[in-house]
Every structure is written in structure tokens, then in C-alpha cells.
Amino acid sequence: MATPIGQIPLRTCTEHKGRHLELYCEKCDTLVCLKCLSTSHKGHDVCELSEITPTKKQDIQNFIDRTEQNDLVQLREYITCTDTLLKENTSNFEKISHKLKMQTEKLKQDLDLLTAQTLCVYHKMEEDNIKLIQKYKQDLKMYDKQLRQQIQECKEALQHGSHIEIYDTGCEMHSQISFPVKPVLGNASFTPNINPQHHLELALGKVTTLDQGQASIDQDGSVRTSGGQEPSSTSQQTEPQTKVLEEWESPVDIFSICPTIDGQVWISYWNSNTLTLLDRKGKVIEEVKHKAGINDISLAPTTHTLWVCDTENNIMELVSGQLKHRFSTKEEPECICVTASNHVIVGMTKHISKFTTHGRMVLTTSATGTGKPLVCSPWRISECPVTHNVAVVDKNSKGADDGDGKEHVIVMDTDFKKLFVYRGDIRSTYKQSSHKRVTLFIPWGVVFNSVGNIIIGDCSNYRVLLISGRGEFLRIIHTDTDWTHAVGVDREDVLWAVFCYRNGKLLQYSSV
Q1: Which of 22, 93, 242, 304 has the greatest count of CB atoms below 10 A from its CB?
Q2: pLDDT at 436
Q3: Taking the model in full, what pTM does it have?
């Protein structure tokens, strides 16, 4: 603590003990005594101490004025700034904590909804199976009754019948009744994700933090951290690499591709009458012939059966190696997608429509405010396993389809309301590969992956794109040497892609 003015003892010369400091040496800028003039300060210009007092007084007054008018005012502002920072700090963390809790609650609700929808599918399938089994049981009982009655009639004919009655009985006993056919029951399965942590982190969202450091307040009142640290993030700053797991040559051309749950893949070519099942190396396992041209195929996510739409307006399901007719559409179906709720979405000229598996239409797209169809020329359809939104490749053909010729991918919610349209935009800061081909965006295939991001086959630019479920470009997954014709994702999130009709590749990529 400083000694109060008036109580400070008089200073004496350090060189000449006991002598008072009465003079000021201008050369050395220090106080001296009379004896110093003949010793260490001999010949120096000196003056009386009282002569420099006015200058010192003015310096002191200037310090007082400057400190009171500037420094103390800024200091009070800095103190107020720290109070504001404390409030903002509390508010910021309250806000992000609230957002985190809201997102967590939303994910819980989405998961509950997904569980409820899946259980509903299971329950419906269980009820359908019960009806089939009960009908089969009734048919067996009826067959038992008829068979017993026939045996009794045969016994009576043997005991009491005439020659002609025995003859008639012998002719009728092989033609009257037949053994009931055992029904084919619906089947379901559930494979838990044994390591869901990564997907949970992706679903929760991106967590970004600023490295902590000793903060200082600049002269303008702003706050900076020491060392100028940049924000750090839990996400990687470098572009993830895509790995080619397998590469194979298909024996037939491919326009549609549906990976199965057991590592195989169904393929078809537009207007061909053959379905082909391949293994991971492109070897043919099975072929199914059809009487009409096949336009598109889709694998049901719950029953894992293959569905087909053809050029004769038929919607069919592949059961025990045979295509079973389920229903017909009024217009030719160009593409098909079976949903998690066991509905069938069919793309036709100027619209897509959702049907039950028995052909009852439950939803269709409507026209936009300008009267133009929301979807003009649907080519491929995919449903998101997370949000159940629907993505459609729209060729947007001119003429009869009322399009403008600009192809795109449109994403809609579960009520077929437009969420966004993606037209092939790639951020300018994205590091392009050495492949310089950049032409019109012509999407050929579209599929959602397990975390709700969208994979698009960019045909004319020879590449596969990854965008978020909200329509934001994420990156280019793969660039090839020829057209991209089909894309599909299996249960392990491995991407099956087809280039130049027959060149198949299995790509391991990062799904974020």
C-alpha cells in the first residue's frame, strides 16, 4: 500500500549521506545535493528543484486528466463488457443445450415413430398370415370331410352297388376333390445394429467447439483468444477417400440395380424381359423371364421381395422365383419404389402415385401454383429410411410431359409436398479431381443411404454425388471414365454403381 502524501520521509543523497537533495541535474535527469556539484556531477548544468516543479505538476495533471477521461472510462467499459460476456456465455450455452435437447427429443420421437410404423407392418403381416393359415385350415377340414364322405360312398358301392354304380364310383373318385395348396406366408426379419454409435452421432448433428485459451480484450473492446486458434470440429477437415471393394463386368446391360440383404444384387435393363440375380463379382445366379418389357425394379425394405413394373401397366412381386401380378395402373409405370410402410410408389407421366399392395391409390402429386406438374417425367424413385421423404429423378421432358428440359432431383415429404430441388450444384471451393468433364447435370439414379443422405448418379459427368437430406452438396464420392447408369446401396451402406451399362463397382465411402 502506498504511503500517503505528507508522511513520506525526506530523501537524502545516496552518495553523500545526510545531505538534502536540493538541485536537479539536467544532463543526468536526476536529483543531486550541493556536494555532488564538485564530484560526480561536476560541470553539469543544474537548477533549483523548485524550477522544475511546475513542469512536473503539469505532467501529473495531464496524467490525471488522461486517466480520468480515457483510461478509467475504457476500464469501466471493459468491466461492463465482461459482465456482458458472462451473460452471453450463459445464454449461448443455454441455447445450444436447448437445441441439443430438442434434437435429441426429435430423434426419440422419430425413432418411436419408426418403431411404431415397423410394428404396424409386422402386425399387418401377422394378421394376413393368420387369415391365410385359418383359410388353409378350413380347406383342410373341408377336404377331410369330403374325403371321408367319398370313402363311405366307395364302401357302400362295393357292398351294395350295381355294376354301373361301381363303374361310376371308380370314375368319380379321382376327379371330385383336390388337396388344398399350402399358402405362402409373409415373412419379416429384424437385425439390430450392434454398433449404432456412429450413426447416432451423425443423426444428432455436428458438434463444433472453439479451443479454450487465455482471452484478452483489444483496445476496441473486442475479445480474442491467445494464439488465434481456429475453431475445431468433431468432423474431419479433409475429404474422405472412397475405396473400390470389387469391380466386375455384367453379362447384360443395366439400368436398374437393387442390392439384396445377402450380398447379391438384382439387375434389369429398360424394356428387357429378363430379371438377373448376380453375386458380388458379377456372376449370374438366377434369371427370371417375363412376358413384357421391364421398366424398373425395387426391393421391399420390410419383406425383402423384388417388385417390378412393366410396359403393359403391370405391378408385380417376385415370389418363389415367379412374378405374381398384384395390380395394374391406368398409365404406363416408368419407375417404382416400395416403401417401409409396404406401399408402392409408381412414377408415371406428370405424376407419382402411392398405392397399397392391392392397387388402391392413397396419394398422388398435385400441380404447382403455376399449373405445371410437380413431377413431369419421373425416372427413378427412392424413399429415405430415416425421414421417409421421397427423392425422384425427374427428366422434366418437354412436350407432352410439360417440362422445361432441365433435369433435376426433387425431394418431397411423406405427403408429396416439395422440400427442395437439386440441380447438380457443387460448391466452388470443392477440390475437383483431374477429370475435367463438366457438362449438363443429367441424374440417372438416386438412392438414400442409411443416415438419410442422398446418392445421385450424375450420368453425363461420369460421377456419383453425395448430398445431405436437406439438399446441401457434400462431395463427389467417385468419378469414373464413362456414364453413370445406376446406383444402389446395400444394408452395409456399400455403394453399388454401374458405369457404361455393364461396368459394376462396389464402393466403400464415408456416408457423411
Answers
A1: 242
A2: 55
A3: 0.57
